[in-house]
Amino acid sequence: MTRSRTTDEVTLALLGAGFVADFYMQALAYVPHQRVVAVYSRTEERAQAFAKKWNIPRATDRLDDLIQLDGVDLYVVGLPTFRHQDVCLRLAEAGRSLLCTKPLGRTAAEARTMLEAVRARGVRHGYLETEVFTPALVRAKELVDRGAIGEVVMVKSREAHFGSHSPYNWDPELAGGGPLLLLGSHNVEFSRFMLDKPRAVEVFAWTGTLVHQTPLEDTAVMLIRFDGGKMAQVEVNWITRHGLDLRNEITGREGTIYTDITGATGIRAFALRDAGYVLEKAPATTGWIQPVAEEPFTYGYVGHLKHFVDALRTGAPFAETFEDGYVVNAIIDAGYRSARSGRWEPVESS
Ligand SMILES: NC(=O)c1ccc[n+]([C@@H]2O[C@H](COP(=O)([O-])OP(=O)(O)OC[C@H]3O[C@@H](n4cnc5c(N)ncnc54)[C@H](OP(=O)(O)O)[C@@H]3O)[C@@H](O)[C@H]2O)c1
Q1: What atom of ligand 1 comes closest to residue 50's alpha carbon?
Q2: E-only strand ranges, 227-313
Q3: Which of 202, 172, 17 is nearest to 107 (CA)?
Q4: Which of 27, 145, 230, 336 sees the fewest Cβ atoms within 10 Å?
Q5: Do residues 54 and 25 touch, judged by C-beta distance below 8 A?
Q6: What is the rounded CA–CA span in Å between residue 185 and residue 111?
Q7: What is the number of helices (H) and of strands (E) in the chain?
Q8: Ligand 1 atom 13: residue of nearest CA
Q9: To the nearest whole number, what is the mean pLDDT of the chain?
Q10: By C-alpha distance, which of 200, 192, 155, 162 is closest to 179?
Q11: Cβ(39) to ligand 1 under 6 A?
Q12: How far is residue 208's CA from residue 219's CA, in Å, rounded to a whole number?
């Protein structure tokens, strides 16, 4: 049954104890009216260590026990993408409401299966896309919505760093794709968000492997043509040396908005001694550095988790759902087809 009841406090169970799970916990510290009651990892030790670090009362390596646990309002899936389908199907089958991180699937087929499962069971489903909750980009959308730059006709969206920290993301079978999928999912959804989610018609993409020794692409550019002729350009790579690079350009008929989330952070330093953690995927901790203040806010982690917790509490709709995740996968699938064929390819989503 779809939940629409209101509740004072949302109880969460976290699936995953890795990189993104850590960001979720940092962010949840700023989200009122919620409590994380359990965490799952493949190994008991890692689950226990994560629970201890974040003061979570229950830790387990038994997924089925967690899925059956009484008193959990919402499951947060922060597992590697190749585990999303299986875990989300099991949660949906058990009638549990869930949020799943990006990309929803490795392919549109996987995402479609997940979407059908949550629809069939009537559970609430949220797509954990951070980019559209990034404070600077929320502000940009406010400018667009008040008509400040006129009708938006083109969105350029870039994300880059020097490659995934997770070994399985360099295995084509497990990862499902390189940066076009793993980073581009953010840029595609941000572009859809800025354009008010028109139907994506067709896609043209180029992928290449320029620096890394990998069967995956490490660089990609993709054009998306939407209904009515509006365009998006997605530029992603794993060849950028200086850490996470997030930039956007939103062009309307009467103005343009530029955002630079990690390049204009308001702090720049020259350090001869080790500066410690600087920003996500920073390769250096000395010399000229540009730390990011409050990463969980700046990257949208606080914004999206607050949105989903509030929406579940009040019965409001989720702004990002498995439907969005599925469309994103369908656009990226068309991108990979186009990179192979050298032609514009239709977006096959239903
Ligand atoms: N901005 C964002 O929204 C954002 C940012 C980063 C990542 N993500 C997404 O979050 C998901 C997880 O990414 P991550 O960076 O957190 O990954 P991660 O750090 O590699 O680990 C995530 C979890 O998966 C488990 N795991 C690691 N290798 C595994 C394997 N071979 N088989 C099964 N489980 C394995 C980890 O270990 P244990 O089971 O041992 O604990 C951990 O609990 C991905 O879908 C990624 O795209 C989203």
Answers
A1: 41
A2: 231-237, 245-252, 255-260, 269-271, 287-289
A3: 172
A4: 145
A5: yes
A6: 13
A7: 12, 15
A8: 80
A9: 96
A10: 162
A11: no
A12: 5
**Element containing residue 21 per DSSP (H, E):** helix 19-28
CATH superfamily of 132-298+330-346: Dihydrodipicolinate Reductase; domain 2 (3.30.360.10)
Tokens in use for 301?
Answer: 């982690």
Per-residue burial over 232-249, b = 16 or more CB atoms within 10 Å of its CB, e = otherwise: bbbbbbbbbebbbbbbbe
Domain extent listing, the chain: 10-131+301-319, 132-298+330-346
Residue 263 has pLDDT above 60, yes or no: yes
User: What is the average pLDDT across 28-51?
Assistant: 98
Pocket of ligand 1 contains residue 261 by CB under 6 Å: no
Confidence of residue 1 (pLDDT cuts 50, 70, 90): very low
What is the chain's Cα-based Rg? Answer: 20
Rounded Cα–Cα distance for residues 164 and 178 (Å): 9
CA 175 to ligand 1 center in whole angstroms: 11
- In eight-state DSSP terms, residue 321 is -
* CB-ligand 1 contact for 102 (6 Å cutoff): yes
Between the CA of residue 86 and those of 89, 90, 202, 222, 290, what are the distances in Å?
5, 6, 29, 29, 39
pLDDT in tens, 96-115: 999 999 999 999 999 999 99
Q: What is the pLDDT of residues 3-15, one digit of tens each?
A: 445 678 999 999 9
Torsion of CA 264, 267, 268, 273, to 10 degrees: -140
Between strands 219-226 and 231-237, the pairing is antiparallel
**CATH architecture of the domain with residue range 10-131+301-319:** 3-Layer(aba) Sandwich (3.40)
